Amino acid sequence: MINKPLITVIGANPAWQKTLFFREFIPGRVNRAYKEENYSSGKGVNFCRALRCSELGESILLQFAGGINGKRHCDGLDAAGFRHKSVVTAAETRNCITCLDDAGNMSELIGVSEKITGSESDEFIKYLQEVLPETDLLAITGSLPDGSDPELYHRAAELAAKAGIPLLIDALAGVDGVLSRKNLTVLKVNQEEFFKITSCNEIISAHRIAQKRYPGKIFAVTNGADSATLSAAGVLYEYSLPEIKVVSPLGAGDTASAVMSALIAVKTPPEEAFLQALAAASANCMNAVAGEFSPENSRCIAAQIKMESQAL
Q1: Global pTM?
Q2: How far apart are CA 143 and CA 149, in angstroms?
Q3: CB 120 within 8 A of CB 89
Q4: Which of the residues 128, 182, 283, 289 could staple to 297 if both were Cys, CB 3.0 to 4.6 A apart?
């Protein structure tokens, strides 16, 4: 039996997810759902769910959770069999409500998340130190709760660097401090976020800026259904995606991060890892649950993705 890599996932800002389904959703009107689903979510959880679907790796989730929503969330993780370490917070875990209609339109209502305290952050780092010896790659996913110090991400990245553990970050908070570390690092963000990081609104120029500012790093940039890009070692790769029938895009980015992390952990070339990640993300869009996808659909989509490369 082949040993699968263990990905330690920092999912600092989880949510108790409610998804409501409508025939038609009209803002400003009374809208009555015909179905609803409730489950543990947040970028870290979606990542772990996608990694399980891919069968490419195992995960342990590090997170903060508090209040009634936090208990529901952790109970949901336990029921689903996800390994996790959760710092209990004084603040309530947020709600997220997603509204989907039969035309494929999505509206998201994101609840309030509250600042992590210093002692809660210290406990979180203690948990991370406990699991790093068995970790093959560290993934930092999503924003911190509102008002929280991004130093938490810097401390986590430094621990990974000292241990020689590769890192994938799918977040904006503290990104400069994370990318300045010397370990192998992949930044996986969407195009809008990448433009914010590079202060540039043209994709090839943005990759050139990123490569110059952070030499040796890998930049994987999604763009919804439009072409995605990746730069590594002075080469730019562009990916054209096939058209699919979208049920919900929720969790697509997290799915891409999960698959790419598992493949990078076993030293797959980054351009191939990202192609497979994009295929899985597209397959996730064919499902209503964030982070769930059919590996068969993913393989079919991967065969249709066109990849081109050029020197930067």
Answers
A1: 0.91
A2: 11
A3: yes
A4: 283
What are the strands, taking DSSP E only, across the chain?
Answer: 6-10, 15-22, 35-41, 58-65, 84-88, 94-101, 106-110, 137-141, 167-170, 185-190, 218-222, 228-232, 235-240, 306-311
Digit-coded pLDDT (tens) for 122-151:
999 999 999 999 999 999 999 899 999 999
Measured CA to CA in angstroms, residue 156 lies from 115, 164, 177 at distances of 18, 12, 10
Rounded Cα distance between 261 and 126, Å, is 23
Q: CB-based contacts of 26: which residues, under 8 Å, 6+ apart? A: none
Q: Is residue 289 scored above 90 in pLDDT?
A: no
Q: Which residue type is seen at 129? A: Q
Name the token pair of 47. Answer: 């990542």
Task: Show the tokens assigned to 66.
Answer: 């508090």
In this structure, what token pair is assigned to residue 190? 């969407």
Per residue in 64-77, pLDDT (tens digit) is 999 999 999 999 99
Residue 178's alpha-carbon distances to 15, 169, 175, 241, in angstroms, are 24, 8, 5, 30
Rounded-to-integer distance, Cα 81 and Cα 144, Å: 25
> In which band, very low, low, confident or very high, does the pLDDT at 3 lie, cut at 50, 70 and 90?
confident
Structure confidence at residue 1 as a pLDDT band (50, 70, 90): very low
Q: Do 277 and 291 touch, CB atoms closer than 8 A?
A: no
Distances (CA, A) of 283 to 37, 39, 168, 263: 20, 20, 21, 17
* Helix ranges, 220-269 (H): 252-265
The amino acid sitting at 291 is G
On the 0-12 / 13-18 / 19+ scale of CB atoms within 10 A, 224 is: middle
> How far apart, in whole angstroms, are the C-alpha atoms of residue 193 and residue 176?
13
The order of strands in the sheet holding 94-101 is 35-41, 15-22, 94-101, 106-110
